[in-house]
Amino acid sequence: MDSLAKIERCLATEPENKASRAQWERERARLGLPALRWFQYRQNNTGGSFHGPMNVIVQAATGAEANKRGEELAGLYFDGVSSGHDCDCCGDRWYRVWENEEGEAVPSVYDEPVEAGEERLFVYADGWMEGGETK
Predict the structure, then answer these.
(1) Distance CA 103, CA 92 (A)
(2) What is the full per-residue pLDDT of the chain (135 aa) written as tens digits?
(3) Which of 3, 125, 127, 134 could form a disulfide with 75, with the two C-beta atoms 3.0–4.6 Å apart?
């Protein structure tokens, strides 16, 4: 089974209950897949307002993958000033994580573990989301 098929199999069968996620992670490791980490995106209140949750925390194997999932699943957008979505005086609403960033072992804000909630949206590797919603 090639790597892509392994990833698809794992993502297709990831359980939605938290108790089984540890077992799913062990299966990923057994298949030789990279460990999943958590990558945080903090919203800048460009234009003087926030839209949706202040923090989006994405589960992915790499920073590049987290950026892609954040855009596709959570509605994040980058380069908002240059695209006309955000004002140039305040800056972009969302910034990409560095592609070589390692991420965190657990969902965290400023290095402190957190739970999903109204101001925090978790995006799991299988696309399941928990917590606040982006608008």
Answers:
(1) 21
(2) 555 555 555 555 555 555 566 777 777 788 888 888 999 999 998 788 888 899 999 999 999 999 999 999 999 999 999 999 888 888 899 999 987 788 998 999 988 899 888 889 999 888 889 998 644
(3) 134
Residues facing 42 on adjacent strands: 55
Distance separating alpha carbons of residues 121 and 135, to the nearest angstrom:
12
Would you kindly state where each structural domain of the chain is located, as residue ranges?
1-33, 34-131
Q: What is the DSSP letter of 35?
A: P
22 burial level (CB within 10 Å; 0-12, 13-18, 19+): exposed
Q: What is the b/e burial string over 27-37, where b = at least 16 CB atoms within 10 angstroms of the residue's CB?
A: ebeeeebeebb
Sequence-ordered list of residues with C-beta below 8 angstroms from that of 51, at least 6 positions apart, any chain: 43, 93, 134, 135
CA 22/CA 118 separation, integer angstroms:
25
